[in-house]
Amino acid sequence: MLPEAEMLKYPVNEEMEEPFFTFGVIADIQYADIDNGYNYTKTRMRYYRNSLSLLQGAIQEWASERFVPQFILQLGDLIDGYNFTYKSSELSLKKVFTEIYKLETPVHHIWGNHEFYNFSRKQLMESRLNSSRLQGTLTMSPEDGGDSLDSFYSYHFSPSPKFRLLLIDSYDFSVIGRDPSSDKHIKSLKLLKQKNPNEDKNSPKDLSETRFVQFNGGISAAQLNWINDVLETSDKNNEKVMVAGHLPVHPDSTDPICLTWNYPEVLATLQSHPCVVAYFAGHDHDGGYFQDQSGVHHLTFNGIIETPPESQAFGTIYIYEDKMVLRGRGLIPDRTLFYRNSK
Ligand SMILES: Nc1ncnc2c1ncn2[C@@H]1O[C@H](COP(=O)(O)OP(=O)(O)O)[C@@H](O)[C@H]1O
User: Residue 105, exposed/middle/buried by CB under 10 A (0-12, 13-18, 19+)?
Assistant: First the structure.
């Protein structure tokens, strides 16, 4: 990170020089039409109804920015799992879509654990939450052609020459969201049982690796190979790539309970490609930030669901030749983030 004095040289305000493009980022809205309640550990309030108001506020601010965002990156958990219990999944999704699409800018959706509490992968693929149709190519695991029980939801696109956004599927290797008869479900369950002997697989009690809980997942070898191929091409083309997934991949950017199951492999892959400049995640509602030893910026966005009604938690990223500038709102701090190898 830059020393404080250096940071001040790059003010984050409306006077900023014109960027190549900007985009909005928001995480863990988890809307439900139910009263406020606590998280599992009873340490944080969840504002289920107010999350829609905070989303409305974010949309209004993005609409009034000098540079209207080219797209919005929605980092997953758009509606809460409680909607499934109350049979309100479709209705809540419709309400959230009504707000989010008022901006008339494309929204790129990541799938988090709460998407799988509400919908099957097939339903997600057929809904507007499948944003791969917007731009870029949806690529499924190569051996199955895209429509098998084991295919994953990952794609990439170039918002501006020399820049690329790569959305990855953190629940590719997972118990939730996978059909119990699928190969990936069977293998994930085996791994989860090995790593987590607790009866309740959502409980991290007494685990040495607390990330091995049911509400997390990992990246399959097929997806990792595909990611590797995409990044190799971007390296050759001198692109800057921002990668996004629901689950964080660096232990210093999050509470370790929220990490991707096989984060060491994913991290090593990202670090080995000089094109990768940043990784965006949600899931950990407290947020986090860390620049790793390779210079990759790890940004974990605070969750809207646990953001007090009088505050906010979203950001706008301004893309320049040598840096990204995060203009944060509410709980999200401003940051000037130089690309690795840019100085
Ligand atoms: N420490 C824990 N022990 C047991 N179950 C837990 C624990 N933390 C969360 N859970 C359960 O795991 C599921 C996902 O947790 P939740 O907090 O809703 O996820 P998120 O952080 O994505 O909102 C819920 O059913 C929740 O009750």
Answer: middle
| Cβ pair 39, 306 in contact under 8 A | yes
Whether residue 216 contacts residue 172, with contact meaning beta carbons closer than 8 Å, is answered with: no
Q: What are phi and psi of 24, to 5 degrees?
A: -95, 150
Q: How far is CA 17 from CA 11, 66, 137, 280, 325, in A?
A: 10, 11, 32, 24, 11
Taking 50 as the pLDDT cut, the residues of the chain under it are: 1-9, 141-145
Q: Which residues line ligand 1 (CB under 6 A)?
A: 39-40, 77, 113-114, 200, 202-204, 215, 283
Q: What ipTM describes this predicted complex?
A: 0.96
223 in helix, strand or coil?
Answer: helix
Residue 15, pLDDT score:
65
pTM above 0.80, yes or no: yes
What is the predicted pLDDT for the residue at 145? 47
Query: Which residue CA neighbors atom 26 of ligand 1 most closely?
Result: 40
Q: Could you give the domains of the chain? A: 19-338 (3.60.21.10)
Closest ligand 1 atom to 77 CA: 22
Residue with tokens 């039409």, as numbered in its chain: 33
Report H helices in 64-182. Answer: 82-85, 89-100, 113-118, 121-126
